User: Which sequence fits this backbone?
């Protein structure tokens, strides 16, 4: 591991200034410390952002949930109001890793975590994500990789929270230079769709401040995932859904799949199809087909397709029970 300076930022503006000295933001360190140990990241400065005012807030007004970037996954999963009002989000947080990881990992760090592709995580492999010329997963081991991509990199987005927040139409407030800017979840990951080297659309000095979730009456949400291990593991496929529910009829549905694309995977056609529909096995399967239309499995990951279909069906069913 290289030597680095360690500083604690007291304001968002100073955090942004400090990180410009070849630095990286440090929150819980669950992802970044691994990258440092493997020499995947060699910053000169680590900017601790845990002391920034307001970033531990988890509160609601009449119209909006505000979730600070340094709220831990454990706080999110355990908060009784979040569990009641945003069960899909609470479940997504609860499904992350293990209790130890959830106690330390933060909302900001979860959204900004880097690729888990095993070629990327190998210190000696220079793949496209590290500026090399080849994607080794395409011809190699692609079991955990994407079914959709817009670039030569097939590493999927692994953040549970990104999938749940996308279903809730959340906005991510980012300190960009001197002023805060608001990004949709689609904005936050758009660059990862088209640029192999990008994990997300954040610039190196973009600081996530908070996530805002609009409160919508009659809205229910759900999140389910399939992983190889029940703990200490990432999802093979995840699914989040949110909708206004009347009986078993859905309105304004947002159906999102995770771990199958470098972005939270949504299809307008699937959301539109579900408008005004009752949740039945047939409607859920049709929505899944629309969502997975044009999926392109690689050598080892076609098995994700039936899992994704089953997850869509079960997640939609959860909205109406
Ligand atoms: C064994 C294991 C299993 C896991 N399983 C899952 C899982 O199932 N699902 C899942 O979603 N995640 C999983 N994770 C990932 C884990 O959730 C993240 O590593 C953790 O949430 C990162 O949060 P952190 O606060 O520790 O971030 P850090 O490690 O401190 O930072 C992570 C990245 O985010 C950047 N960053 C941190 N804060 C900010 C900010 N405010 N603004 C901008 N950039 C920022 C850092 O510079 C770094 O690049 C797992 C991790 C491990 C080790
Ligand atoms: S999928 Fe992406 S991260 Fe993995 S080897 Fe290919 S280019 Fe690298």
Assistant:
């Amino acid at each position: 591991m290289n030597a680095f300076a360690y500083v604690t930022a007291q304001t968002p503006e100073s955090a942004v200034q400090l990180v410009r000295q070849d630095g990286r933001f440090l929150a819980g360190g669950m992802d970044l410390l691994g990258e440092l140990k493997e020499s995947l990241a060699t910053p000169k400065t680590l900017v601790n952002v845990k002391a920034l005012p307001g970033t531990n807030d988890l509160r609601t007004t009449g119209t909006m949930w505000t979730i600070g970037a340094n709220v831990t996954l454990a706080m999110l999963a355990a908060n009784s109001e979040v569990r009641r009002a945003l069960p899909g989000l609470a479940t997504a947080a609860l499904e992350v890793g293990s209790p130890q990881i959830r106690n330390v990992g933060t909302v900001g760090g979860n959204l900004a975590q880097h690729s888990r592709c095993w070629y990327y995580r190998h210190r000696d492999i220079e793949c496209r994500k590290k500026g090399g010329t080849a994607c080794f997963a395409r011809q190699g081991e692609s079991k955990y990789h994407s079914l959709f991509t817009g670039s030569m990199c097939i590493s999927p987005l692994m953040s549970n929270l990104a999938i749940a927040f996308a279903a809730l139409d959340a906005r991510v407030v980012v300190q960009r230079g001197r002023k805060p800017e608001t990004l949709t979840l689609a904005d936050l990951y758009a660059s990862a769709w088209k640029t192999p080297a990008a994990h997300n659309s954040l610039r190196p000095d973009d600081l996530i401040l908070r996530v805002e979730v609009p409160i919508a009456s009659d809205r229910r949400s759900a999140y389910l995932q399939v992983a190889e291990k029940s703990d200490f593991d990432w999802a093979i496929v995840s699914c989040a859904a949110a909708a206004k529910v009347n009986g078993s009829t859905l309105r304004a549905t947002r159906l999102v799949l995770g771990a199958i694309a470098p972005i939270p995977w949504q299809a307008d056609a699937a959301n539109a199809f579900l408008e005004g529909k009752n949740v039945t096995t047939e409607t859920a399967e049709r929505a899944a087909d629309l969502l997975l239309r044009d999926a392109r499995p690689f050598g080892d990951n076609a098995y994700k397709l039936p899992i994704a279909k089953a997850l869509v069906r079960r997640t939609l069913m959860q909205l109406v029970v």
Observations:
- The chain has a mean pLDDT of 97.
- The domain at 219-320 is CATH 3.30.390.50 (Enolase-like; domain 1).
- The longest strand covers residues 237-246.
- The CA atoms of residues 229 and 235 lie 9 Å apart.
